[in-house]
Amino acid sequence: MEPKTKKGKASWDISLSMTANNTFNPIRNIVDGMKLTPNPDKDMIALSIGDPTVFGNLPNCVVAEDAIIEAVHSRKWNGYAPSIGYEVSREAVAKYVSTPNATVEAKDIILCNGCSGSLEMCITCLASPGQNILIPRPGFSIYKTLAESVGIETKPYDLLPSRKWEVDLATLENLIDANTVAIVVTNPSNPCGSVYSRQHLTHILAIASTHKIPIIADEIYEHFVFPGLQYHSLASLTDDVPILSCGGLTKRFLVPGWRLGWIVIYDKHGVFSRVRNGLVSLSQRILGPNSLVQSALPKILENTPQDFFNDTLEYIQKNAAVFYESLSRVQGLFPVMPQGAMYMMVGYEKERFPDIKDDVDFTEKLVKEQSVFCLPSKCFQYANFFRIVLTVPSDKVVEACERIKEFCSSHYVAMEMANGVHGDSCH
Ligand SMILES: *Cc1c(COP(=O)(O)O)cnc(C)c1O
Asked: N or C: at which end does the chain have fewer Cβ atoms within 10 angstroms?
């Protein structure tokens, strides 16, 4: 039947929303565009996937498993939870994250769909289109994806490989302008594996305090530091900077698929009162995370034995040490030893690999010749590095090192021998 009035369209001309159109995941965009044809004579070793469950060598803790099973069998947790999360679950998170100098309660916690969900809520709660947030470079790509898809600008501040990836503080301060509404700090870091000292965190906080800019702390790797090192949350080191800390079960408890994240609101002076209401409103958009995982939180957070965490970290540190020892001896490479999280960044001296165009080309050729896949640092808005994942089985680590070494020696050119020019070494 012919419509009487001219409503709608004459054909199915369906356009894409601005948000969808502006949403890019740089890792997917770069990786999907790469030519990844492994050497048929060698098994593929993927050092690229930031998911500690893929190899089966790092299982979850049975405490967490049992808590979920019990929740299912009780049939008590099948309904809607409050959109910010169950009170008992938020209380458990508050207890878990509180320190003597930064104590929080259930009212300061919002449960989210993974730490990505927490980050999305924090970024969109603090920033409007046209405003900007400062983000680390190299950095986890999701900050840019989340912000730029809704018209929020991101301004990258540099991390310094020569200083174990500490923040270039002068640049950070210089980037702040009248439209800057938040600083994102990732500690410990993906992709760098850095863990900041108390003193360095204090310097970052001083800049935030001077310019009255709140911090979004991505602390998904809280306590995920190698034996002998200490983790400090940003909130535990300040009395005046308001902080939204994003965390969750994903990494420390080795259950990324469970999608349980949280926001901790640290606000000693009530300057976040509007933000607090804003976060509650935003939580009502998708009504909170899975009720079963929420209900298991008190048991998971209270009863997971310290040994579980220690074992994981010892395993990762051992892998890191093997990679570092071995790759440090490869001419043209300079790995930066991590202090936590599950990654290591390895730099290469560009001038010594004249037949390699950039880090994407480097990692493509490494797949083609040696069937070893690492992420190019372009995925983290950085150049001339590649990222290695440290959760792989130890036998693969040794094999991967051998192959990377072989790859490098077949491409390395000692330039001083050819023309007397020294490449600038970053060792
Ligand atoms: C893995 C990761 C996240 C995301 O965690 P999910 O809980 O899986 O959403 C956030 N930030 C960093 C730095 C990460 O490495």
From this structure: N
More confident residue, 338 or 28: 338
Inter-axis angle of helices 291-303 and 87-97, to 10 degrees? 30
The residues, any chain, with a CB within 8 Å of residue 187's CB and separated by 6 or more, are 194, 195, 196, 201, 217, 218, 219, 221, 234
The CATH number of domain 19-48+307-418, selected from 3.30.540.10, 3.30.360.10, 3.90.1150.10, 1.20.1050.90:
3.90.1150.10
Condensed to tens digits (0 to 9), the pLDDT of residues 158-174 reads 999 999 999 999 999 99
Mean predicted confidence (pLDDT) in 57-80: 97
Chain-wide mean pLDDT for the chain? 95
**Hey, where are the domains in the chain?**
19-48+307-418, 62-303
Pocket lining for ligand 1, CB < 6 angstroms: 114-116, 140, 186, 190, 218, 220, 248, 250-251, 256, 261
How far does the centroid of ligand 1 lie from the alpha carbon of residue 421, in Å? 43
How many CB atoms are closer than 10 A to CB 322?
Answer: 16
C-alpha 61 – ligand 1 centre gap (Å): 19
Mean pLDDT of 344-363: 97
pTM for this predicted structure: 0.95
Gap between the Cα atoms of 352 and 340, Å rounded: 30
Alpha carbon 167 to chain centroid, angstroms: 16
Strand 243-248 and strand 343-348: the pairing is unpaired
Of ligand 1's atoms, which has the minimum distance to the CA of residue 116? 9
CA of 276 to the centre of ligand 1 (A): 22
Task: Determine the atom of ligand 1 nearest the C-alpha atom of 118.
Answer: 9
Quote the pLDDT of residue 424: 47
Q: Which CATH class for the 62-303 domain?
A: alpha beta
What percentage of residues in the chain have a pLDDT greater than 70? 96
